[in-house]
Amino acid sequence: MRGGKMLPTFDCRYHCMLAREDEREQLGHKPVKYHGKWPFWRVYGIQEPVAVALSALNLSMQFHGWLSFFILVYYKLPSMDKRTHYEYTGLWHIYGILSMNSWFWSAVFHSRDVELTEKLDYSSAVALLGFSLIIAILRAFNVRDEAARVMVAAPLIAFVTTHILYLNFYKLDYGLNMKVCVAMGVIQLLVWAIWAGVTRHPSRWKLWFVVVGGGLAMLLEIYDFPPYQGFVDAHALGHATTIPSTYLWWSFIRDDAEFRTSSLLKKIH
Ligand SMILES: [Zn+2]
């Protein structure tokens, strides 16, 4: 992209697509996908303005959630020289960074869909999904021992890394990636749902909402529909459902930090 100009092939593809869609509409046909994507109306050169706005909103929700968690564990809850009592602080920091990274690249990808931005978006999403699976297992099974944590995380990190390398350097296989993401998504939703059912955690009800919200976002990702008025498709709607669940999710994490810290301190005294 020299001099801020779009690549000619890229722009032609867009106008060709819109012309084709116009023809199809006049003939009474339904929209079709082009290069695996629905036709969207661009706004100021942004390909999917609604998805970009929702990604930015998700990013700010994640930042807000992570920041409030940070303030809680380091400034409000008792700690022993800079170290928190809560055993999952470091893991939630990594989760926060991975999710903000993922929403950032989602916003970039939906503004300008080229090979590089697509790979960055997909890779970040897979990394986030893989890490949230690890954290689901570690938290639900209350794995606090460092060696046991490594035993759980190592094979999953190896798998996720291999998958990302495969997508980037061998083949960007949408079907395969969908299967991998749905598998990782379903397992972690099940882990949280079962745990929410058996635990006596005071904030377990928040988990229920997050599980339902996560399931809904996943269904929208699987059951694709063409964009309404050329703007909102299933994928964008999926990005909308994650906004309230993100709020509730970080609220659960903060409750968990308080709950664990207070029960640990009770044991000590
Ligand atoms: Zn997206």
Automatic annotation (TrEMBL):
- GO annotations of cellular component type: endoplasmic reticulum membrane; Golgi membrane
Instruction: List the Pfam families hit by this protein, alphabetically.
Output: Per1
**Which positions, given as ranges, span the membrane?**
50-77, 89-108, 120-138, 150-170, 176-198, 205-223
Q: Which residues form a coiled coil?
A: none
Please give the InterPro entries that the UniProt record associates with this protein: Per1-like
| Superkingdom, natural source | Eukaryota
Q: Keyword GTP-binding, does the record have it?
A: no
**Entry keyword set:** Golgi apparatus, GPI-anchor biosynthesis, Membrane, Transmembrane, Transmembrane helix
Membrane topology, from the record: Multi-pass membrane protein
Query: Which family, according to the similarity comment?
Result: Belongs to the PGAP3 family.
Q: What is this protein called?
A: Post-GPI attachment to proteins factor 3
Q: Which organism is it from?
A: Fagus sylvatica (Beechnut)
